[in-house]
Specification:
This protein has about 350 residues and is mainly beta. It has a single domain, classed as Beta-galactosidase, Chain A, domain 5. The strands form eight sheets. It has a nine-stranded antiparallel β-sheet with strand order 11-12-13-14-30-24-23-18-21. The chain is about 5% helix and about 40% strand. The radius of gyration is 19 Å and the shape is globular. It has three helices and 30 strands. A hairpin with a 5-residue loop joins strand 11 and strand 12. The longest helix has 13 residues. The protein binds beta-D-glucopyranose (BGC). The site of beta-D-glucopyranose has 10 residues, from strand 25 and strand 28.
Length: about 350
């Protein structure tokens, strides 16, 4: 792991850590927001590409609205106004999307400086102490995020502890483009999800509380569809494609999501122990200046945000987001990258046996 100064922003000085698996997988991660800024993946033809969207400066990360690559908390996705009640106490949350709170509030974890901890070549570990009352949430919270590279995966592990009852929902907000971050729309990518249900929302994107089967709808992604089909689906016009929370029906040994590049040279499988995944096809990106002079248009990336259910604080039928003193909150998500020819070769070996 190597570390260098990246820049500064109103949150403070930002450093960038570079980690590598020594076999072509390399990640750059920022102390601001414990943010994944780049992920270099080598396909079977030897072509190296950066498969996540990002910015070139600390200010853009601090002021940007896209949450590129960020660790989002304390509570990713939405909590309806004015806040929530826990053990008979009311907590009012500062809003940042109309009257509701999105992605942990105006200065959530993605806009705070995390402390890098000593770690090996293949990993970066960050810690954040979030004080009682931070963005309206109770309890002093210690949270740690580890980015680790294995032979073909990026693994993100989370750990958190509190000294008073609180709620927690962490995710990573990377926008993937398996053709490379600079290569236009992800419309040609193919997507498949292990999800039998989704949580419908109202016009403010707040869950209604219903857990509805995907069968018979455009959201049935149990057989793969192109992202382009979803972007142009009339039923998904208001969200300009996907911006939906899917309930995962597999286990952490089955991919929650599969994404394939249009040319078939690279695929990503997402494994997680979280109960849900928000899939966002970036319908509202709108020509954001990105890394190395790239300009990101709508639909130039896809977020596969593994998480608990949005607004779970208001829906007793959703998995509980409560964390209590003495408990350790742990979670793991793995993004496994494969060159298509490697997948084919494995199948061929299996057939020969
Ligand atoms: C949300 C979108 C939002 C985007 C950027 C996603 O997680 O679901 O509605 O526009 O993040 O904030």
């Amino acid at each position: 792991m190597s570390m260098q100064y990246f820049g500064s922003c109103p949150a403070g000085e930002v450093h960038e850590l570079t980690i590598s698996n020594g076999r072509g997988l390399e990640a750059k991660v920022l102390s601001l927001g414990a943010t994944l800024r780049s992920l270099l993946v080598t396909d079977e033809s030897g072509r190296r590409r950066d498969v996540v969207l990002g910015y070139d400066s600390a200010e853009e990360y601090f002021f940007g609205e896209a949450y590129f690559g960020a660790t989002v908390g304390r509570f990713c996705n939405r909590i309806a106004a004015p806040g929530f009640e826990l053990d008979g106490k009311c907590f009012v949350l500062p809003p940042n999307e109309g009257k509701n709170q999105l992605h942990g509030g105006p200065f959530g974890f993605s806009r705070q400086i995390w402390t890098p901890l000593p770690a090996g070549e293949d990993r970066a570990v960050f810690r954040l102490i979030s004080p009682d009352g931070d963005m309206g949430f109770p309890g002093n919270l210690m949270v740690q995020v580890t980015y680790r590279l294995t032979e073909e995966s990026l693994v993100i592990e989370y750990e958190a502890e509190t000294d008073a009852p609180t709620v927690l929902n962490l995710t990573n907000h990377s926008y993937f483009n398996l053709s490379g971050h600079e290569s236009g729309s992800v419309g040609g990518h193919r997507l498949k999800l292990t999800a039998d249900f989704f949580t419908p929302t109202d016009e403010q994107m707040i869950p209604t509380g219903e857990i509805r089967p995907v069968s018979g709808s455009v959201l049935d992604l149990r057989t793969e569809k192109t992202v382009g089909e979803l972007i142009s689906a009339p039923e998904l016009k208001t969200t300009q494609g996907l911006d939906h929370n899917f309930v995962l029906s597999g286990s952490d040994a089955v991919p929650a999501a599969w994404l394939k590049a249009p040319d078939g040279t690279l695929s990503a499988e997402v494994y997680t122990d979280r109960p849900a995944i928000q899939v966002y096809t970036a319908g509202f990106l709108g020509n954001v200046p990105g890394k190395n002079g790239a300009v990101y248009a709508d639909h130039q990336g896809i977020c596969l945000e593994t998480q608990g259910f949005p607004d779970a604080v208001h829906h007793p039928n959703f998995p509980s987001p409560v964390l209590r003193a003495g408990e350790v909150w742990r979670s793991r998500t793995e993004y496994r990258f494969r060159g298509a020819s490697r997948v084919r070769r494995r199948k061929a070996v299996m057939i020969r046996i």
